[in-house]
Amino acid sequence: MKKRRSVGRRLGALAATGLLAITAVVFAPTAVGGRMTYIIVTGNSMEPTFHSGDLIVARDTDAFRVGDVAVYRHPQIGRVVHRIIGRDGQNYVFQGDNNGFVDGYRPRRADVVGAAWFSVPGAGVLLRFLREPLQLTILTVLSLAGLGGGLATRPGPKRPVLAMRRRRLVQEVKAP
User: Fold this and answer.
1) Residue 20 reports pLDDT greater than 60
2) How is 103-163 classified by DSSP, letter by letter?
3) What is the pLDDT of residue 61?
4) Which band of pLDDT confidence, cut at 50, 70 and 90, is reported for residue 1?
5) From residue 109, how far is each of 26, 60, 120, 135, 167 by CA, in Å?
6) What is the pLDDT of residues 8-18, one digit of tens each?
């Protein structure tokens, strides 16, 4: 019975590790060679599609089409999330859904980071909060304490088993 539980636990751990590895590969950010970009929306230029504080997960793709919501790098502003509304030769034309004007900057393909894949409404607010030094320190300390606590409570050999071993040793020594 113990062997089956042990094999089951090992298979479960192996499956969990495999799932974690696949998730890490699929959601790896571009900074470490992946295809995903994570951006927290600021401002209201994409309302009602996205709101300030939403987290957008964008993935790199081979081609971007008119109508795609995409993330591009603006040389002065940084990353911008707007909708592609057209092409101007090799450049894309962008506009925010809530803007009455077209973006002045026309990024090339190399400047477009990815197309919006999905969003998590409000998750950016939580991430911004957790990125503050005090909250990050508290979270790190609690995580380390949790790991240490798990190691400290690890069960060791049971006392009755040790007592039985001692009795056997004593009996073996007394026997001629």
Assistant:
1) yes
2) -S----GGGEEEEEEEEETTHHHHHHHHTSHHHHHHHHHHHHHHHHHHHHT-----HHHHH
3) 86
4) very low
5) 22, 11, 26, 38, 78
6) 777 878 787 77
Structure tokens at 102: 């077209």
- Radius of gyration of the CA atoms of the chain, in A: 28
Kindly report, residue by residue over 32-90, the tens digit of the pLDDT: 566 778 888 999 999 999 999 999 999 888 889 999 999 999 999 999 999 999 999 99
Are 122 and 53 in contact by the 8 Å Cβ rule? The answer is: yes
In our burial notation (b when 16+ CB lie closer than 10 A, e otherwise), range 152-163 reads: eeeeeeeeeeee
Cα–Cα distance for residue pair 102/50, rounded to 1 Å: 18
In angstroms, rounded to a whole number, what is the distance separating the alpha carbons of residues 20 and 81?
Answer: 29
CA distance linking residue 100 with residue 84, whole number of Å: 14
CA–CA separation, 79 vs 35, rounded Å? 16
- Between 72 and 166, where is the model more confident? 72
Evaluate whether 121 touches 54 at the Cβ level (below 8 Å): yes
Question: Residue 40: what are its φ and ψ, rounded to 5°?
Answer: -100, 125
Q: Residue 82: what are its φ and ψ, rounded to 5°?
A: -145, 175
